[in-house]
Every structure is written in C-alpha cells, then in structure tokens.
Amino acid sequence: MKTTGHPLDVGAPDPERKNSPILDDDSYSEEDLTFDFEPETGVCYFNDKAYRVGDYVCSGNELLHCEERGVWVKRGPCRPT
What we know:
The chain is mainly beta. 0% of the residues lie in helices and 36% in strands.
C-alpha cells in the first residue's frame, strides 16, 4: 500500500472470504480478542487479501487500520480523494 495519498478502497467485507475482525477504536482492547479467533501476527485479512500491520484501507466510508495481532481497528471516516 502507498504511504501517501488516499488509502486503498477495498469495498465491503465478503462473509464468504477470509476477513480479520473489525473493532471500534474506542473499544479496542486485549479483552476484545477472547472470541473464537486465532490471531495472526503481522497481517490483517480483508476479502482473502493480506495487509501488513500499519496499513490503512477504506471500507465504504470507514478508515480501517491494521493493528498488532491481526485485527482491523476503525479510525474514523475515509476522506474523499
């Protein structure tokens, strides 16, 4: 992913494909990861595609950030290009 400009628009998550959990920014904590999910290290998945920790993507109007343990965290709205 580019480090400048608008994050990649990845569309909506497809429930038939591999997706990492998407958590709200204000509620993200280690306790949120107690469900049946085997956390990855270093990658987040969105519709079967792997993204590195630190990458940002836009899903609809939500800006998502790939965090440690392989989860997406909502970071606010995506800005139009």
